[in-house]
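Summary for the steering committee. One of the milestones for this cycle was to obtain a three-dimensional model of the protein with adenosine-5'-diphosphate bound, which we needed before selecting residues for the alanine scan. The sequence and ligand used are listed below.
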Amino acid sequence: MVVDIIETAGITYDYQKYIDENSGSLLIRAIDNIALKIEAGKFVSILGQNGSGKSTLAKLLAALLEPTSGVLYIDGKDSTDKAQMIDICKSVGIVFQNPDNQMVTSIVEDDVAFGPENIGIPTDEIWQRVEKSLKDVDMLEYRHSTINKLSGGQKQRIAIAGILAMQPKCIILDEPTAMLDPQGRNEVIRTIRELNRTKKITIIMITHNIDEVICSDQIIVINAGKVVMNGNPPYVFSQTKTLEGYGLAVPQATILSNELKKSGISLPDGIADDSELINSIMNYCKQM
Ligand SMILES: Nc1ncnc2c1ncn2[C@@H]1O[C@H](COP(=O)(O)OP(=O)(O)O)[C@@H](O)[C@H]1O
Ligand SMILES: [Mg+2]
């Protein structure tokens, strides 16, 4: 049975921006009539240039903001239903861009324990969850470490462990690698792929970096608060010109494979990385 962890019907979100006494406030529509379904267990990427509405959408999907209009169901529950807020918080967790803003204590294991403590999980179970979550992000050996001595990639993995300790069905990550070096970026991407693959946790990864979305099941492109593309990577990556129009740089391998196809070489659609391109060219050569 297909279960949707997220379902929205025409949601909008307006920010109110105060100008001055004479002009009063201005409404800024950050999310404009978005209808989405995200199936449980999938790895979904939300891609869009700066200012396109990604962070606002992330906060809506995590019930940190209420839609101005339209309805949003998180794990079957209306996101504005106060009576179900604890259940919603258990279902969906969010990791932000800056690891330093997400830490609430100074020692790794205390930080991971913070979420479950807040929802009244018994002490014994909290420590079992902490140990398991740290193991899942490969940080157990750092459980007694001071957080500010860790690298950016390690801090983001601690933030992910803190969410895992809540045993969520879905993790939303808002540009989790934007402040990391290449090694930290790899650590984080590897960790979330592994959580999706082995634990079937739904991943909603928000990014403006097209290279990070290659292995997704579904890519949702947003621009000016609207969903402008929604499909699998081969479909999305085959629309090079359209993506460029939304300010999204397309991988070199995709550009090259599209050029090769134009010159009559038969290659599959939507090639997105170098090894895929090399394999496709080798297959083509074998058939010659
Ligand atoms: N607190 C805020 N007050 C007013 N406008 C905001 C606020 N936060 C975001 N916006 C505006 O909403 C739009 C979407 O922003 P955001 O969701 O942060 O986009 P992204 O994460 O894709 O960069 C932008 O036009 C931004 O300027
Ligand atoms: Mg943002």
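Key point for the committee: The chain has a mean pLDDT of 91.
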